[in-house]
Fold these 2 entries.
Entry 1:
Amino acid sequence: MRVLHAAAEIFPLAKTGGLADVLGALPQALLEAGADVRVILPGLPAIKNGVERKRLVCEIGAIFGAGKVSLLLGQMPMPGKSPGTSLPVYVIDAPYLYQRAGNPYLALDGSEWPDNLQRFALLGWVAAHLAAGELDADWRPDVLHAHDWHAAMACAYLKVFPASTVATVFTVHNLAYQGLFDEADFHMLGLPARLLTPAGLEFHAQISFMKAGLTYAHRVTTVSPNYATEMATEEFGCGLDGVVRARGRDVSGILNGVDGTVWNPESDAGIAATYSPSALGGKLRCKAALQTSMGLKADPGAQLFAVVSRLTHQKGLDLVLAALPELLAAGGQLAVQGSGDAALEAAFTAAAASHPGRVAVRLGYDEAFAHQMMAGADAVLVPSRFEPCGLTQLYALRYGAVPVVRRVGGLVDTVVDASVQALARDEATGFMFDAATPAALAAALRQTANAYAKPKLWRQLMLRGMAQRFSWGDAAAQYLSLYGEAVQAATAMR
Ligand code: ADP
Ligand code: GLC
């Protein structure tokens, strides 16, 4: 099976969130399962610089504006991965669209790049033409797997391609980011006007890139089974639940995994001391190190809660601020690492100033420090309003930090609440609360503090969590079987 992944991010080269972690692990897991996998990415500075041994595949000329576009093929640097495997990566070299400082989607001042329509239409266009066999005479995929709205337009371009035989799979990592653009710019896409209808790309008088994937891909997936169900409801559908429901059984959820070559407390070189389920001593040293580096009181007995997150409405961190008095009253400490919303950044900074030694905040993005947070924390808070999968609770589990999560999305599929029954069966791995309210979180925090006061019970939770295996190998097997279905669907539709 030949598979081309199209996406805007890939760990470790360009990352704003979990999407990059998925691209950093899933193609590799598919390679290990025997598939012939390649990835196509926009030539953002970090990607163009990071992809090794690049050579020119073809000049594409000027599309989406006046600049020159060419397609390069190189190799992903893969330190720590299985020797002998290499991941070929196509890079779309279009300096006029991609060669700029800032993140993949936003300028340095936080506004969206004004030419995002062209920037991500180009990703879709090139991915589609490569998949259709137009750009690289030496390789073409059986399946094009596009991730999030950034790559979704590939499905629209293939839809109108005269003799396309390639199957398409579209994965939703976050339905809230949809890639909406002014209808008046539709002419720039080079697509027939018949696609700009509510049954196609139109969404309330705008162009929706997300709808290209949801509507035209042969199969649609998201990153947990529970979110697949939620996406079809008004509460979580972000206005697209009708589109999701219309696809019926073409939509499914495949749970993300943990890349054990990156996230493993037994071998992590970036934490104060390594540790394992049978030798947990190192975790205490990691906790002490985290307290020191965050300026928290050096107190091995204080329950240390951590947050590693984008600071956005999605993540429900305003609930943490509101429930902070209860957390502190129970003797807890809070360490936050995050960046995003200015009001949340200011509120956490103010909370740290009001509670020196007990609340500490590190604003900004720091991959290495995220490992130290997971290793040093007793518990990790993920009180999301919605969460397609969530990776931080998976990393927390692996690092023996007990997750406290809202009963939503992929959090439901990955954490087992410490109910009386689950504890009796030794299945519990964390704490869950229902309502997105400070009171509900506070109640879960009290439960967490009570459990922490019982060392035997706490150790049971930690060890059960550390024993969880969210394997990319399992996910890869499920994707391969779905690719088979997509190929059949594409053949049947010809
Ligand atoms: P999302 O993709 O919605 O942000 P996930 O839980 O799937 O949520 O993935 C978040 C990823 O981003 C994890 O790898 C997490 O460690 C990382 N992350 C989030 N915020 C930060 C930060 N401030 N510094 C370092 N890593 C972060
Ligand atoms: C998105 C989601 C997150 C998911 C990640 C990777 O960013 O918000 O829940 O884990 O994608 O699939």
Entry 2:
Amino acid sequence: IHKRVSKAAEETPRLLCTLRKSVQKRREATVFSNFAVEKILQIDIINLSIGRGFNASVRCCRQSEREKGDETMQLMEEQIRKNGIVRAGNVLKVDSFLNHQMDIDLFNEMGKEFYRLFGEEHVTKIVTIEASGIGIACVAAQYFRVPVVFAKKSESKNLDGDVYTSAVASFTHNKVYDIRISKKYLSEDDRILLIDDFLAKGNALLGLLDVCQQSGATVVGAGIAIEKGFQEGGQLLRKRGLRVESLAIVDAMDENGEIVFRRQ
Ligand code: 5GP
């Protein structure tokens, strides 16, 4: 598939169309293509795993759109390099622009990028988890023009009894808590985009996925600001078939401030 995809990328859109049809028919690959075939200038392999079966995900996009995505990724990486502090226990502290003080220009670029990536998925709701996911989700929601629902981490008098819940092990607080979303705000007609600030071991996203699935809603994917690629969450969720798009992926980091990003 690798060979066929790169060949197709170099050649005509007609070939791409043939490729797409053939991979779909043979169920060897899932092609996420949001654009008309004539407009595709670039094709990326976003996930390729060859195990007992044969499995590949391919995303097609316009060259110009791809460049916009690269700019957002560079902005994120610059901020992390400049202001991120690596703490013991694989924690990346980004309090100055993401988790405490918030850089709204950056959030705006992130929102735009999530819309570029998921804008054609007919998203009806963005679901996130308190607290740090809320700001990013709200800015992104202005592009999607949909409501944001955030999962609560504690019981609240504002939440009546009828809730979907799931147990989540917290990466940063080292404890297990129940997340809750009122049944009123999720339905089987919803097409949900999950958004969060960090992806580490994947527990927060798995919990969100679980509550959304309890409601019968469709989850179209997850938009993440920073993925720590050296932890297992990204691989786990992608293997489950969830489309995960991370704006920056940290492949390695150490307490001397060395941070290595994955080229995407
Ligand atoms: P996971 O559930 O994927 O293990 O961790 C994701 C959640 O833990 C995110 O919602 C985020 O709030 C928090 N988190 C995980 N790793 C980090 C980190 O390195 N830095 C910060 N600031 N938060 C993190």
